[in-house]
Amino acid sequence: MRPPRVEYSLTDLGETITDPLEAIRIRTEQLLPDVRRARTRFAENDGAADR
Predict the structure, then answer these.
(1) Each residue of 1-19: pLDDT tens digit?
(2) Within 13 Å of residue 14, how many CA atoms lie on the same side as its CB?
(3) pTM value surpassing 0.85
(4) Torsion sign over Cα 18, 20, 26, 31
(5) DSSP string for 1-51
(6) What CA–CA distance (Å, rounded) separates 39 from 22?
(7) Which residues contact 4 (CB under 8 A, 6 or more apart)?
(8) What is d(CA 40, CA 32) in angstroms, rounded to the nearest whole number?
């Protein structure tokens, strides 16, 4: 027996958040290389933060 099919969609209010979320996603992708480099430096320093 198959469960009933359901389709979802955002409300008008929900749609208002899509642009800000997309901007956050894009900025996160832009910053990811910097975050990875910082994590590598941190790990190479045995977890000691740069000062």
Answers:
(1) 999 999 999 999 999 999 9
(2) 4
(3) no
(4) negative
(5) -PPPP------HHHHTTHHHHHHHHHHHHHHHHHHHHHHHHHHHTTTPPP-
(6) 25
(7) none
(8) 12
